[in-house]
């Protein structure tokens, strides 16, 4: 087998995404182009290409690659889109988004995570991503509006303040449900007379918590 530039574990990574049903070529290419091993803890580098969530700083997690690919595919991104992410974490999902749209704003409540994600994204020359310290429950209208919004922490309910940031026909995807246990990914689409709401699949995310974290 010829594996120039693609170690076997990276080829398996692509294969497992396809096998699990990811078929959007642009999403698969983005997943191929972003080095996940740089977004995980140094001690986890060897596991970076496995299809599992891994622990990162501040007691948070980098999501499972399949879930990242699935949510990205469901967003149906266009190159001109402006995208908001709530829950930067490692910055991995933001990096994937940055390959598929015009501009990403990613908000994180831990300063440590926001700072390290910002540094890494800059190092990878993903210059269309801005990382901001903030609270996804209190997103100010000053940030403008977005074609797509992705929430990567579990919310018991999606706040109106967030839905209000959507452009007409805009899409928001969020894990909605109890903090402990299983949530359902819900896809909201803004229509002329409100929001269309479609449940997708069951997932498990770390909870979205209110306020900027007091600890680092
Ligand atoms: N998308 C991340 C994984 C996110 S884990 C990645 O690709 O690595 C969920 C993240 O959401 C955590 O970093 C957590 O601190 C953050 N978070 C939780 N509640 C939040 C809130 N209210 N506002 C912003 N970020 C929040």
Runs in which pLDDT lies below 50 for 5 or more consecutive residues are none
Could you say what the CATH topology is called? Rossmann fold
- Average pLDDT works out at 95
| Main β sheet profile | 7 strands, mixed
Largest sheet, spatial ordering of strands: 5-4-3-6-7-8-9
- In total, the number of domains comes to 1
The amount of helix comes to: 25-40%
- Individual helix count: 6
- Give the class-level CATH name: Alpha Beta
Brief description of this entry?
With 216 residues, the chain is α/β, with parallel strands linked by helices.
Q: Can you walk me through this structure?
A:
With 216 residues, this protein is an alpha/beta fold. The protein has one domain: Vaccinia Virus protein VP39 (Rossmann fold), CATH 3.40.50. Helix content is 26%, strand content 26%. It is built from six helices and nine strands. A seven-stranded mixed β-sheet has the order 5-4-3-6-7-8-9, with helices on one face. It has a two-stranded antiparallel ribbon with strand order 1-2. The chain is globular and about 50 Å long. The model has no long low-confidence stretch (mean pLDDT 95). The chain binds S-adenosyl-L-homocysteine.
